[in-house]
Automatic annotation (TrEMBL):
Residues 1-15 form the signal peptide. PANTHER family: ENDOGLUCANASE, LMO1036 PROTEIN. Residues 26-357 form the Apiosidase-like catalytic domain. This is DUF4038 domain-containing protein.
Amino acid sequence: MTLLLGLLAALAAPADPGPTPPLTVSANGHYLEANGKPFFWMGDTGWLLLSRLDRDETEIYLATRARQGFNVVQVMLLHTPQMASRYGAPALIDGDPGRPRVTPGADPKRAGEYDYWDHLDWVLTRAQAHGIYLALVPAWGSLVEDKQINAKTAPIYAKFLAERYRDHPNVIWLNGGDTRAEVNADVWETIGATIKRIDPKHLVTFHPIGRTDSSWQYHEAPWLDFNMVQSGHRSYAQDGPSVRGEDNWRYIAEDWIKLPTKPVIDGEPSYENVVQGLHDLDAPRWGAADVRRYAWWAVLAGAFGHTYGENNVMQMFVPGKYKASFAADQRWDAAIEAPGANQMRHLRALIESRPMLARVPDQSLIADNGVRYDRVLASRGPGYAIAYSYTGRPFTMRLGAISGRQVQARWYSPRDGSLTPVGTFANRGTRRFDPPGETRPGNDWVLLVEDVAARFPAIAVRAR
């Protein structure tokens, strides 16, 4: 009898979330936690993973991104009404979002029989095994613009998703799909509110169109747990007189001070290896230095993490098999090792190595700041301060904002995670810091200034 009761209790207990417990917002409203511990979102855009990769390829993708230090993948559920898995299983019946195609009783061991949603179940399970959360976009914006998802189908589709995936621990919901938040707002509100009502355990945000921010339309929406920016893919020159341009840190800084306090992240900056502006196929491509800049700028401005993207990987491109978008030109499984992807781990390693939840952006630390590429972003926490220079230009820091009579300074390389000692000195007044090398775009360096008495641990960078 005791054994039977034990078995029944085990069956009734919630599944062990393993390395991916549900995420929550920290008490101060600016960051995320997992099981009460600080969580740094290091995301990748794997938008077409469900429709273009088979299970063996999916395993390669997830294992590689986990090795590189990524712990979130942003994935599209419905890119078009005809969305289907790599195995040809359609997501919908007759392209109707109000009629998801499910096939109860199919043998999951036989690739030709499991349906689209069974495949997503499997992908979630494998992502969980790799310590990865899936940030799921219910539908690309065009499905709402073209009225396939409307006042009638939105609550049906959202209810289906929330009920089916509310028990998976590694789910995050990205309502919206590269779309204007103020257009068809009633439909997006319905999707967000329905998912949150049925699945209150998982975080919900909104993925907006480029150069916009979810906070502009939905900051006070009860279903929106954190804000997401799409700082976009254009250059300063392509933006004309835009105040923000490539300055993605501006969105983060604006959201940091909004009330009620909510976390914020840049969920889509310029992708590595994509042409600037996306549509001019002869334009220069964004490179590793650019994606590093966007990441460090956003995080030091107050973001709780960052999402990286690579042009060929985000569309799982295979030359000769798929039509190239935005001048994609490499197989995804080669482009997955792009330099920028392998350098994101150094950002995560540094931020996680110091007290995360008490870190605040503080531009007053920089006494002689510049504009555009010469902007130095800075933040500080208990006993430490961090400043990032994209061009490696010399700058002056105001000391005394952190604890300690004596502080030590080191240069941290965002390219390889190496540390170069600068010196130890009194924690008062101002001090000029000159990064190694010549001043030029891409000679980026991170200045780490710390209270000598704090004795922080070494920065643990994941092995490649």
